[in-house]
Amino acid sequence: MKGMTLIVKKTTQLIAGMIFMYGIYVIVHGHLTPGGGFAGGVIIAGSLILVTLAYGGEFLKLVKEEAGTTIIESMATIMIIMIATAGFLFGTKIFFNNFLPKGVVGQLVSAGVLPLYNIFVGTEVAASIFIIFLSLIIFKEESPQ
Amino acid sequence: MILGALYAIHAKDLLSSVIACGIVGYSLVICFLLLKAPDLAIVQIVVDTITLIIMVAVVLDSSREESYSKLDTHGYISAVTGILMIVILLYFFAISIQSLDVLGKSTLRMANYYIEGAAQKTGSANLVTGVVFDFRGYDTMGEAVVLVTAVLGVLTILRLKGKK
Amino acid sequence: MIAYIMCFILFLVGLYGVITRRNLVKIAVSMSIMEISTFLFFALVGYIDGGVAPIVDPADPVKTYVDPLPQALVLTAIVIGLATTSMLMAIIIRLYRKYGTFDIREIKNLKG
User: Fold this and answer.
1) I need a labelling partner for C15 at 20 to 30 A (CA). Which of A27, A82, B47, C32 fits?
2) What is the pTM of this model?
3) DSSP result, B13-79
């Protein structure tokens, strides 16, 4: 994958950061406005996919050696598992116990542990979808045509 | 939506078939907005785009032409089996639609409980987030495990150097 | 009532595609159409007439809301659908690299 023309690259430089920030906004405000961990995670993965498509595989140094890519994939997958377990066993002795103070309905810092769950789930969804896309690209680059 | 689905199945070119599947997904977004579900609309419009990217990447990597399909020798058996399955499905549909409510008059018992009690019990203004992460927390945990398993499956299938 | 029937017809179209087509990509597309019809059905069950989107406004709490439970179920199901579709695509591209065709009859005859 070689990347696209100069116009696409410059436009991606302008837009991708804003899409990423919008994903973070959707995750953080997930308990107040429509959205949440799933939507924000998918939006973040979409911004990363946009950068990868515009600049090509060489820009991200993906396809150097097979051993290196395997190690990166394994590390990312282990990180997903750790985040998933840590995010959902975060409660006290009772699972999913909403132990933090509730706060006032409608403010940003409220609703106990729900924003933490939102953040963890968003990270996990973004990482897994981006790994699927990267594995497709790596497979296409390394296979003998 | 139904026209888009029919074209997606009957198109000769695989690329146009995949794009017609995208038409069905985007019209689902409009249906979600009409049914007052903005969370689902946000998720669906991004997920559909990413699905379209992956499918187009797969189709462009390989041959686009669909092989010419004609009725084979087992055509009668297939037709009889298909008609039988459709009749059975219609029977169950006719049974189940009598037990459903009329559209717009939902009388689920749990709905009132969730709607009245969720905002005070979880402190979350978005009721969907409250249901997903608080009342149905184990469901979400299972979803995370399924996602990790799917990623592991994709990595295992697409790995080049394996045991010979 | 007509909405349920349209939703069921969409499901039948997907099932027809799965049964009759011989191309692997077409089968994947048909399965995603069946998924979409299921999502639409769940959203239809939760709809309440005159309801608003389920987001509580503390200033004006007296309203009727749409049922949030089916929306929560569909929210997780959509993301799972993306993951399973990706895995299906991975299997399909692996088969194509090995056999060089999308046709299931030819793959069955090769026995490789």
Assistant:
1) B47
2) 0.79
3) BHHHHHHHHHHHHHHHHHHHHHTT-HHHHHHHHHHHHHHHHHHHHHHHHS--BPPP----TTHHHHH
